[in-house]
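Exam prep: given the inputs below (a chain plus iron/sulfur cluster), describe the expected output before reading on.
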Amino acid sequence: MPLTFELNTALRMCGFDRVFDTNFTADLTILEEGTELLLRLKKALLDGQPAAFPQFTSCSPGWVKYLEHFYPEYIPNLSTAKSPQQMFGAVIKTYYAEKHGINPADIVTVALMPCSAKKFECNRPEMDDSGFKDVDYGLTTRELAKMISETGLDLPHLPKSDFDAPFGTATGSGVIFGATGGVMEAALRTVIELVVGVKVEDLFEHADIKPVRGFEGVKYAEIPVTQVGPVPAILAPLFPSWDFLKGATLKVAVAHGTANAKKVMEDIKAGGPFSKCHFIEFMGCPGGCIGGGGQPIPTSPEIRKARAKAIYDEDAAYAVRKSHENPDVLRIYSEFLTEGPCGHPSHKLLHTHYTERGRYIE
Ligand code: SF4
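Solution:
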């Protein structure tokens, strides 16, 4: 049984004033990254301009660093959307601070992550779009376990408590970010539904997009767009209609672990089948974050399998399973990021920029 809500109590007892759910910014990432994909498709298919395809996911700092070192010529293919961790820091020190009358200089943000590379990511000097260091510290799950044990707290027997508002609502899509294929599945649930105009459950049973699930090193799927619906209000400023997508086939792939990433990147360099993809999810660790470097030791294929099962079971139990239906995400777009996904305020706070000198430096 997940101990998420007991953990909220433990964190407060350890001295944290507010506890927010990173799944909130996982949903925000899907809105931003999914819109970016649609904008690239529009640029290529409607405007006839060159666009960098395949678009690569950018939420795994292990993968991002690998690409920067070994395939820097493909940096333009990386989504400019920041990771959920970095989006959260930027949002807390702007939107949250403003809403609650707190001086952002007085806020210390700590990200609890399965990942040791997240410490590196939060220390990248350009991650300061809030006007401050967006995320001050990263703690791994292993470090937190040690902290809790040092304080003598009996985690499984603590009372449960909720996340703090206004970032306490998550969806099943945010939860599955932790397993290989999860970011792709979350993005597809949203992109398909917003474009096709029918419930994704009508196309994939229970909204489970199984072709992108599982531990195969590299997965590939094709999604034909046989019909399009009306453009939803949140994307109306960017897209007059979806006609440019009618009849297209969305080609996607998923790779986890750098050995598999290398295979896909070499294939792309050679002009192979993966170079024809529109969107590829890469995760630095085998199995995705469930096998992350900050996770409890040991990690084995069986343990990864059990962690993935726990994640998909949790997703199935969520009342809301799609990022674009997260009410807290919709609220931040109506109150703060008022130009919608990929609008100017979002771009400033939630996206990075690349140049020949590096990914993030404007
Ligand atoms: S896949 Fe690994 S490197 Fe990437 S975010 Fe997850 S734990 Fe970190």
